[in-house]
Specification:
Layout: E1 9-10, E2 22-26, E3 37-52, H1 60-71, E4 74-84, H2 90-108, E5 115-122, H3 129-141, H4 148-154, E6 163-171, E7 174-183, E8 196-201, H5 207-219, E9 225-226, E10 236-241, H6 258-278, E11 286-294, H7 297-309, H8 311-318, H9 324-333, E12 344-347, E13 350-353, H10 363-370, E14 374-380, E15 386-393, H11 397-404
Parallel strand pairs: 4-5, 8-10, 9-15, 11-14
Antiparallel strand pairs: 1-6, 2-3, 3-4, 3-10, 6-7, 7-8, 11-15, 12-13, 12-14
Helix pairs in contact: 1-2, 2-3, 5-6, 7-9
Length: 408
């Protein structure tokens, strides 16, 4: 199922655009002079689902969230700190994460089983709990419908702008809204990365269907982006659905009312994932990779991912060098079956490669295309009907500068 964009309307309000959600973002002193603690709350209990990092090294908050969601699929609050990842911190890190859960529950007067926690920042450092605990209490007192932007700001690390979005659709004639906020700039690879995304909706959706929808939409969005090929320890995409829209509960993918809900969710996640790529550390160009004519959609996705993860391709794009051989080589080592002599390649509307390895194109025109801020690469394998898209950015000297001095 793909997103049906004509059924959607973009709206303001980010994470608090759906009915019944409140948010806050404050400065608690983890990062000097910057917002670093966010809180999301729905007084009405919400169904919850989440997708987590594939990294074998799991941060304490990821382990806590997994435990919480095994105990209950009803959540009413989410607390997030930035600046310190609380990863590779052992027993103390686990206790600190659980302390954030307890403090949030106490500040809001809800059950500890109704709280999720997330962290992002430097790995291997302990959380400054003497700052976070009073910060949680202050954030609880600052909750409001207008707090969405401050919350979106508080979860950032090396990001250069806030990432929030909201969309409205109709489910059985009932207006339903989905909002979200995300952070991510570096350590971004397929299967998520140093990335946090939180989604809210006032739709009524059963817990199993909510999880299935989130996983499919994540596969078609955050699992199709790459900045630098690194997968982090803290990644999470979570969704809360409090049912306040009043629609008939969605329980099956076969329900006709499910299509507009899923379409809006996928659209939201694709928009947020593209924002992350645009904000890639040191990025100067946004790149869409379209692989067509593959033997299957799965093969096309494998090829597109290989291209997006190639540092040689990404540096060539940064240097505005139409080095199509690097792209063809990436498809070659991706492991899919194809005939290299059948490949055609386009940079924008400029054909760079024809069948039989023909490569007679204007270098000047190619440099102009690669000089644009948004670039579309199309690779037609001429092997079948499979196709897939992937999103990435260039890899610049600025990326090295940022990550060489990340802890300082």
């Amino acid at each position: 199922m793909t997103a049906k964009r004509l059924l959607q309307t973009e709206v303001g309000g980010g994470i608090t655009a759906p009915r019944g959600f409140l948010a806050a973002g404050i400065r608690c002193g983890i990062k000097m002079g910057k917002r670093d603690l966010a809180l999301l709350h729905t007084p009405t209990p919400a169904r919850a689902a989440a997708v987590f990092t594939t990294n074998r090294v799991l941060a304490a908050p990821v382990l806590v969230c997994q435990s919480q969601l095994r105990r209950s699929d009803t959540i009413r609050a989410l607390v997030v700190n930035s600046g310190v990842a609380n990863a590779c911190t052992g027993e103390r890190g686990m206790e600190d994460a659980w302390s954030m859960v307890r403090e949030t529950a106490g500040a809001l007067g809800i059950s500890e089983t109704e709280v999720l926690v997330a962290s992002t920042g430097v790995i291997g450092k302990f959380l400054p709990m003497t700052k976070i605990v009073p910060g949680i209490r202050r954030a609880a007192g600052a909750l409001s419908r207008g707090g969405h932007t401050s919350a979106a700001e508080a979860i950032l690390t090396t990001d250069t702008f806030t990432k929030e979005f909201a969309v409205r659709t109709s489910v059985d004639g009932v207006p339903v809204t989905i909002g979200g906020m995300a952070k991510g700039s570096g350590m971004i690879a397929p299967n998520m990365a140093t990335m946090l995304t939180f989604v809210s909706t006032d739709a009524s959706v059963s817990a199993p269907l909510l999880h299935a929808a989130l996983r499919q939409a994540t596969d078609r969005s955050f699992h199709r982006i790459s900045v630098d090929g690194d997968t982090s320890t803290n990644d999470m995409v979570g969704i809360l659905a409090n049912g306040m829209a009043g629609n008939r509960e969605l329980e099956s993918v076969d329900d006709p009312a499910y299509a507009p809900f899923y379409g809006a969710l996928e659209h939201l996640l694709v928009r947020l994932s593209k924002m992350i790529v645009v904000d890639g550390e040191g990025a100067t160009k946004f790149v869409e990779i379209n692989v067509t004519g593959a033997s299957s959609d799965e093969a096309a996705l494998v090829a597109a991912r290989a291209i997006a993860n190639s540092n040689l391709v990404k540096t060539a794009i940064y240097g505005e060098d139409a080095n199509w051989g690097r792209i063809l080589a990436a498809v070659g080592y991706s492991g899919i079956e194809f005939d290299p002599a059948e490949v055609e390649m386009f940079f924008g509307d400029l054909q760079i490669l024809t069948r039989g390895y023909g490569s007679d194109f204007s270098e000047r025109r190619a440099k102009e295309v690669l000089g644009e801020k948004e670039i579309v690469l199309t690779i037609n394998l001429h092997q079948g009907e499979g196709s897939a898209s992937f999103w990435t950015c260039d890899l610049s000297t600025r990326y090295v500068e940022i990550n060489a001095k990340y802890r300082t």
